[in-house]
Amino acid sequence: MASQGLEKKHSVQDMIAQSRNKKGKKFIEKCMPIILVITALISVLTTIGIVMTLIFETFEFFQRVSITDYLFGTEWLPFSGREPLYGVLPLILGTLKVSVIAACVAVPLGIAVAIYLSEYASDKTRRIIKPILEVLAGVPTIVYGFFALTFVTPLLQELIPSLKIFNALSPGIVVGIMILPMIASLSEDAMSSVPNSIREGALALGATKLEVSLKVVLPAALSGIIASVVLAVSRAIGETMIVSLAGGATPTFDFNVTGSIQTMTAYIVQVSSGDAGYGTTIYYSIYAVGFTLFVFTLLMNLLAQFISKRFREEY
């Protein structure tokens, strides 16, 4: 009888504990949607605040400078004492120089690394190489900048004597190294998602390992690979410290990659460091350049989403 009473006592205690746990779970279940909605609203409101700030300050800039001169002008001389010129094309061209060079470095190397990790490397090798590769993404960009200025540029000057200490080639190569892990990792994920049955079918038909990789797996994962490339290039367009340290501060409207350049982000850094007073035209110009950069990045992200949906393969 005593043992039965003890069992009943324990069962009642268990029931009380379970009811308390259920109440706690119900409370958490009710609170979590509210917390998640608040988090989402903070993200949305922050984005709206950034965009509205850019729009209002850019509008103030265009009250002082003609939008036609800004969009189609080929000279960017905001600090000219006689007649400042605000043609943004030299800054855009400088940004595109670095981004194109970075893409030429990162795209072939990144896809090659992705093919190796996905199709050739063993599980053990993949677990070793992939984290080491992704460490490159965690290196501070200012370190990359000094690496470009003090190591890559002198090395390139041995090959190209006419190369200036500040140029577009060196930061372009280093930015390519910086975005390489993004392309390699995302492309490898896209290739790994291709079903093995497709590989086995191609091998059964007599295709070699290389032919399967290049002619079967690569086209099947094309949407993910292109999306990774577009996202990486948009990251290169918005890079700041590397081009500020190794690219120079000379906006030029030409296609020479051996001389000093200035990108949109480098100009923003220059003015933000105290070269212009609050409320001046030069001050508002950084918002106009920032809005232009925002439009570039937005278009690149929209392009990546369109490509992902347009060329996505479903298995």
From TrEMBL:
Q: Which GO terms describe its molecular function?
A: phosphate transmembrane transporter activity
Q: Name one Pfam family in it.
A: BPD_transp_1
Q: Which residues form the ABC transmembrane type-1 domain?
A: 92-304
User: What does UniProt give as GO cellular component?
Assistant: plasma membrane
Domain of life of the organism in this record?
Bacteria
Q: How does it sit in the membrane?
A: Multi-pass membrane protein
Which keywords does the record carry? Cell membrane, Membrane, Phosphate transport, Transmembrane, Transmembrane helix, Transport
Where it mainly occurs, coarsely classed, is membrane
* One Gene Ontology biological process: phosphate ion transport
InterPro entries, per this entry?
Answer: MetI-like (IPR000515), MetI-like_sf (IPR035906), Phosphate_PstC (IPR011864)
Its annotated compartments are: Cell membrane; Membrane
> Function, please?
Part of the binding-protein-dependent transport system for phosphate; probably responsible for the translocation of the substrate across the membrane.
Provide the family line.
Belongs to the binding-protein-dependent transport system permease family. CysTW subfamily.
Q: Under which name does UniProt file this protein?
A: Phosphate transport system permease protein
Protein's organism: Lysinibacillus halotolerans
